[in-house]
Design a protein that fits this description.
Elements (H helix, E strand, L loop, with lengths): L1 E3 L4 H4 L29 H11 L5 E4 L6 H8 L3 E6 L2 H10 L5 H16 L21 H18 L6 H16 L3 E2 L6 E2 L8 H19 L7 E5 L13 E6 L9 H11 L6 H10 L7 H5 L12 H11 L6 H22 L3 E12 L1 E3 L2 E3 L1 H12 L2 E10 L7 E8 L1
Parallel strand pairs: 1-11, 2-3, 2-7, 3-6, 7-8
Antiparallel strand pairs: 4-5, 8-12, 9-10, 11-12
The chain binds S-adenosylmethionine.
Amino acid sequence: MQTEIPFDIEKIGVSKRADYTFKYNTDLGRHGWLHLTPAYSVKLVHEIIKEDCKKGDLILDPFSGTATTGLVASELGFSSILYEINPFLIWLGNIKCHNYDICELLALQNEFNHCLDTVVVADNYWIPPIHNIERWWHTDTLCILASIRNRLVEIFGEPNGNHYHNLVWVAFSRLIIETSSVAFNHVSMSFKENTVQYGFLQIKNLFKDIFSNIICSAKIQLNGQAEVIHTDSKEMSQNTTDFFDVVITSPPYPNRISYIRELRPYMYWVKFLKNGSDAGALDWEAIGGTWGIATSNLKNWTPTNHNLPDRLYDVCEKIGKCEDKNAETMSKYVHKYFDDIYSHLLKMSSLLKPQAKINYIVGNSSFYGHFVETQEIIAESMKQIGYKQIKINTIRRRNTKKGLLEYNIKSEW
Ligand SMILES: C[S@@+](CC[C@H](N)C(=O)[O-])C[C@H]1O[C@@H](n2cnc3c(N)ncnc32)[C@H](O)[C@@H]1O
């Protein structure tokens, strides 16, 4: 296996490259509608498409997340299909990748203004059943958000299949985060010390600004087409018309970050989550899921694949032997992650055209000081399955513990 490192790590270290993270996307129109940490950088996807795609190629992203791949591909005139397991992200991805009619957007803007002008603030409207909700929003802020939500439902209905009305709900999702006490500066979400008390006018003006920005970028037409489909990437099967030329994706990393945990404020407010047990059940289906029941289910988990790379069994053994009450569970967590990825890679091979070009953006991780070299284990799994020309390129140093890097595993089918 060839490991290519484009920088001289010994001398200058691998740099952090914020331009290769979600931070790069903040001001890029539709990409910046919601600032979600799972997203990878638009710049990275641009570079890969430039290198690997030719006119007419069909692109696959089996771990769509916020649909960065699909949106960049559409902006550049390519067609793509994206798979995702989280219903909120499927909903969001399809809204981001839709082409909107400008006249309808203008009509929507008027309807929205009217809606906001007719909100009645009261303290008896539905609020989401989020645990410790007062940690997220000041009571008065919460009451205003709930009143606005109630009026949105009256005018536009709950989030549904109407792409235009859904734009209002994307703006609302952004509003609830901007008025909350949550900070997204770290790898995962954290709380600021205090919640902020906003007045109705402040919130109304903020909402208007957010919505105007969304409408502005929704007006820009996309040249290609992208669709996000609800599919478990471990189970995906061939749909006769879709054989892919290029795969560009970033699966979850084996680092116990739960997408459900990160996304739960949005998911509760737009009713994609109803309670904590829904959250755990959803996370158990996801690769690397670790929220609630997902962790306790690990106790009874048994592997599907029995010929995974030796390097994996070695590191799992080391993790399992550590002196910590959770060591065995963590060892199983890592084992299951790579078992799932192996099942996924196996299924994916039946969807690829010969010589299809593959890109997996992944990160390594560390448990009790033992490094899990994700890039090597996935590269070896690919080799076992029959992928060719496997190369590991180092992209950047992650903003966390020393030694944690991000890579692109490139290969061909
Ligand atoms: C690192 S994120 C992808 C981020 C994406 N590149 C972006 O820019 O937003 C990984 C995604 O894989 C999804 N996922 C996890 N397990 C999955 C599965 N079994 N099938 C499909 N999607 C899955 C997660 O919900 C998450 O959104």
